[in-house]
């Protein structure tokens, strides 16, 4: 059944919560402002207070939360968001680490070796590039299935001594399905048995035609181990980004996606969020999946606190009441009541789905016994 909190009902009517409570009390029901009442009761209350009521479907709870249009004139360039994919052991993590450390000001490098889900570096042209360390292809697929398109460019890592392998092919298919351009990083070229030419030919068999073979896919030979050609890779990413002409409106309220989240003993739920549109500010009310919170602090990938985070910026967000899930979309809402309404709705949806699954299980069992 449809429900609404008294606070939210009062907000929508621009009435005071106490007046709604008083009216309900006259009808013999005692309530607190945070209580939920059913839609029929809410309609009676609204009409009693002289408001016209338009009942909407429950799915409209999410109405206007995401993807509301921006004015063309509000759009400005934003950094590309890059995901590194490839076969097991081909050097994805090594490459991410190498790029990050090559970019970290010397002297600071010591303490910054812990795993992080997303970070930003500066390309040789001076523009920032955001990297996401997806835990694997499964997570990438899950994110896509939930409508979260987080990545603009996929860097496909192929080890020159091993060549195209099953997960290389999988990654090509993922990128194609998501309509995201590929840049090929032929890694481990320092190895004596490296055969980059073979990689190019094998890629061709999967309809990836690299530049040196007359195609359009950018390719760079790199060595994560020897930090070879990392600048060239960043250049290629910047070039590809230029072609994509990536833009976002930084002036609206923020939207983004949870890249990873965990419960920290001291700090509570910590979510790494990629901001995709708008600017996230300390103090904003946010929802992510079935969780909400008031942003208490924002931290960049170096652990420095920030006041805000604009498009394509990855930040750790502190202040969620519970731990959201990777792939959850993040939105800023205008009131705590709206945050509660949305997350309670989603919580209810989760419960209903679980109940439906449990329910069907029971009925099939009782079918069998009858
Ligand atoms: P998974 O996360 O398990 O899929 O692996 P990965 O793709 O992240 O590979 P990882 O970075 O863990 O590297 C795998 C192995 O290859 C490690 O032993 C690295 O040291 C080695 N390696 C990575 N890059 C290079 C390189 O450029 N040259 C050489 N010689 N070895 C490399
Ligand atoms: Mg790895």
From TrEMBL:
GO cellular component labels: cytosol
Record localization: Cytoplasm
Region entry Disordered, spans: 345-368
Amino acid composition bias (Basic and acidic residues), ranges on this chain: 345-354
Highest taxon of source: Bacteria
This protein's UniProt keywords: Cytoplasm, GTP-binding, Initiation factor, Nucleotide-binding, Protein biosynthesis
Entry binding sites for GTP: 86-93, 133-137, 187-190
Tr-type G domain: residues covered: 77-247
An annotated Gene Ontology molecular function: GTPase activity
First-listed, main subcellular location of the protein, grouped into a coarse class: cytoplasm
Family: Belongs to the TRAFAC class translation factor GTPase superfamily. Classic translation factor GTPase family. IF-2 subfamily.
Task performed by this protein: One of the essential components for the initiation of protein synthesis. Protects formylmethionyl-tRNA from spontaneous hydrolysis and promotes its binding to the 30S ribosomal subunits. Also involved in the hydrolysis of GTP during the formation of the 70S ribosomal complex.
Name recorded for this polypeptide: Translation initiation factor IF-2
Gene source species: Methylocystis bryophila
Parent-protein start and end of this portion: 290 to 659 of 869
């Amino acid at each position: 059944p449809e429900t609404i909190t008294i606070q939210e009902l009062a907000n929508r009517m621009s009435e005071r919560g106490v007046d709604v409570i008083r009216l309900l009390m006259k009808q013999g029901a005692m309530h607190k402002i945070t209580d939920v009442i059913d839609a029929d009761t809410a309609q009676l209350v609204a009409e009693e207070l002289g408001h016209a009521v338009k009942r909407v479907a429950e799915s409209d709870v999410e109405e206007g939360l995401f993807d509301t249009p921006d004015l063309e004139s509000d759009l400005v360039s934003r950094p590309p968001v890059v995901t590194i994919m490839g076969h097991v052991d081909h050097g994805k993590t090594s490459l991410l680490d190498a790029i990050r450390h090559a970019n970290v000001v010397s002297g600071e490098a010591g303490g910054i070796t812990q795993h992080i889900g997303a970070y930003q570096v500066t390309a040789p042209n001076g523009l920032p590039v955001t990297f996401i360390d997806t835990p694997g292809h499964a997570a990438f697929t899950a994110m896509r299935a939930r409508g979260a398109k987080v990545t603009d460019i996929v860097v496909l890592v192929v080890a020159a001594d091993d060549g195209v392998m099953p997960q290389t092919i999988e990654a090509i298919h993922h990128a194609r399905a998501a309509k995201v351009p590929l840049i090929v990083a032929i890694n481990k070229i320092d190895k004596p048995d490296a055969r980059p030419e073979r990689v190019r030919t094998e890629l061709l068999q999967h309809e990836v035609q690299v530049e040196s073979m007359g195609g359009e896919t950018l390719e760079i030979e790199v060595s994560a181990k020897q930090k070879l050609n990392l600048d060239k890779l960043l250049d290629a990413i910047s070039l590809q980004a230029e072609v994509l002409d990536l833009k976002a409106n930084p002036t609206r309220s923020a939207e983004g996606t949870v890249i990873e989240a965990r419960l920290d003993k001291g700090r509570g739920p910590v979510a790494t969020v990629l901001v995709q549109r708008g600017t996230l500010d300390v103090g904003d009310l946010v929802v992510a999946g079935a969780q909400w919170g008031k942003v208490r602090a924002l931290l960049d990938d170096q652990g420095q606190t920030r006041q805000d985070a604009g498009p394509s910026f990855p930040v750790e967000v502190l202040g969620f009441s519970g731990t959201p899930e990777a792939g959850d979309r993040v939105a800023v809402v205008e009131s705590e009541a709206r945050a509660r309404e949305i997350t309670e709705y989603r919580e209810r949806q989760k419960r209903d789905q679980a109940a439906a699954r449990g329910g069907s299980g029971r009925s099939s069992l009782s079918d069998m016994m009858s």
